[in-house]
Design brief:
Mean pLDDT: 88
Shape: globular
CATH class of the largest domain: Mainly Beta
CATH superfamily of the largest domain: ntegrin, alpha v. Chain A, domain 3
Structural class: alpha+beta
CATH topology of the largest domain: Immunoglobulin-like
Helix content: 10-25%
Radius of gyration: 25 Å
Strand content: 35-45%
Order of helices and strands: HEEEEEEHEEEEEHEEEEEE
Distance between the termini: 99 Å
CATH architecture of the largest domain: Sandwich
Largest sheet: 12 strands, antiparallel
Number of domains: 2
Number of strands: 17
Length: 268
């Protein structure tokens, strides 16, 4: 029987298939490796929360504002310690400034699990800068969760100036967590060079976020009140930018950004 003859087009198709098949096999294998080796960043869909009010401001002069800052992480990986945030950093644009020297400091030692009322009673009244809420999820293995990660606590967040210069204490308390309610130590710092190149001026740095093997903070939000006059802003340029960088316990990290428009207030 004679050898089959192929046209030039058929030879090209056959050759292409011979090249594509091994490449596809390598791609599938690589995908399998990626799925098997999930990281803290893979297990989360991190976002940043922020709002400046009022949004109608002077173009040149900085005026007192309310500044909401917060983070949100995926609840479905509760119980996986790798998916917990180990460190947080939120930077904001240069047209928003936070000056903690405008308020007294709370230098009183506060332990995890102290109530909100106790913290306020032990600190100078004007060292309390504002507050917010948090959400804590637990894994499906907990009796109250019934096989699916569920919300087990919604702590109250209180922001205190201090105990040192440019430091903030983010005090939390929840009846459900009681003694396990954490105090998060943060610091207001100058934006790093890369952040400054992108138009950011300052950042809230949390180098050691509270981590547990079981529970997971899936939401953490707090507002610095305008009445304390530590946060000021202007509407030039006509938007506020926020950048979040979260580092997980396994060393992986990811970023999230948010932009809010502002309007220029006409002078009378």
């Amino acid at each position: 029987m004679g050898r089959a003859r192929f046209s030039r087009r058929e030879k090209l198709i056959t050759k292409s298939r011979m090249i594509v098949a091994p490449a596809l096999a390598v791609a599938v294998a690589a995908a399998g490796i990626a799925v098997a080796g999930t990281t803290g960043a893979d297990l989360n869909d991190a976002s940043v929360v922020s709002k400046v009010t009022p949004s109608k401001l002077d173009k040149k002069k900085f005026k007192p504002v309310n500044v909401l800052l917060g983070v949100v992480n995926s609840p479905d990986s509760a119980g996986n310690e790798d998916a917990n945030a180990a460190a947080e950093r939120i930077a904001w644009s240069k047209n928003v400034k936070v000056n903690l020297n405008k308020a007294p400091r709370c230098t009183t030692p506060l332990a995890n699990g102290t109530t909100t009322q106790f913290a306020k009673s032990e600190c100078p009244a004007k060292s309390f800068l504002g507050g917010g809420t948090a959400t804590v999820h637990g894994p499906g293995s907990l009796p109250q969760c019934g096989g699916t990660p569920c919300q087990i606590a919604d702590p109250v967040v209180s922001v205190f100036n201090g105990p040192g210069p440019n430091q903030l204490r983010l005090h939390t308390f929840s009846d459900e967590l009681q003694g396990a309610s954490p105090i998060v130590n943060a610091r207001i710092v100058r934006a790093n060079q890369r952040e400054r190149n992108q138009g950011y001026g300052q950042a809230l740095s949390v180098p050691a976020a509270p981590v547990t093997a079981t529970l997971k903070i899936t939401s953490f939000k707090a507002t610095i009140r305008s009445s304390r006059k530590v946060a000021t802003a202007k509407c030039k340029p006509n938007r506020f930018k926020v950048l979040r960088r979260v580092t997980y316990t396994d060393g992986s990290s990811e970023t999230a950004t948010l932009t809010q428009r502002c309007r220029v207030k006409k002078r009378k």
